[in-house]
Each structure stands twice: as structure tokens, then as C-alpha cells.
Request: fold
Amino acid sequence: MFNKKNKRKITVDGKVYYWSATGDDGWINLYIMSDTPSSPKLICYFHYHQDETEFDHDGLKGVTLTNQFVITPYTVKQAIEYGLSQGWEPFKRGKDLRLGHIDDYIDLRLDKNKENSVPSEKVCKSKFF
Reply:
């Protein structure tokens, strides 16, 4: 099971799932599972799709990364549907299904699902975002 503090609930097609998203050094990890004992987790990743802004401060040049992609319930629903289409069986015993990066397989709504665009109650809060 996930840490209760970071777990969120979502219902898709009448079935209940739990999910958690965490940031990593190069991507966002999304973990989804059912409440069935010993059931497999669905594990997938997303790029941050952040905006890059160059800066020059007192002769130091660099890049600031802002406005990162955020995981929303819409994203999680699509990940579940994609996982099911790839053979994930969340209500049976089994091994975790790792799909890798699925950015190209679902609608990320990058025009709407960035931290500056999503209302704060829809953003997955974690210490990494």
C-alpha cells in the first residue's frame, strides 16, 4: 500500500483506485493500485514539460525551470485506461506493470495542466513539486 498521507482515491468506470505521484530528478513517478491484497501496481512516468527561462544575474547566466506539468485526476484516469489496455489486471494477484514514460500515449493537456494554470486543489501536492 501507499503511504496514507500521499494516497489519493479515484473512481474510474465504477471501480476504486488509489494513486500517488512523486517528483524525481528527471521525471514524475505515478503509482496506481487497487485495494485488493497482493494486486499489482501500475507504474508510469512523465516528463516535467517545464518552461525554461534564461537569466543573467550579476554576470552569472543560467536557466530557471518553472511552470511544471502536474498530475491531475484527468491524467490518472487516462493512465488507468491505458494500463488496462496494456494488460494491467489491478484486481487480481500479480506483478507490477511498469509502463515507463507514457507522455506520448495520453492527452496531457499541457495548455491546462501546468502549475500556473491548475487550481491549487487539483494539483498533486508533494515535497518534490
In short: The beta strands are 8-12, 15-23, 28-33, 42-46, 51-57, 60-66, 97-101. The longest strand covers residues 15-23.
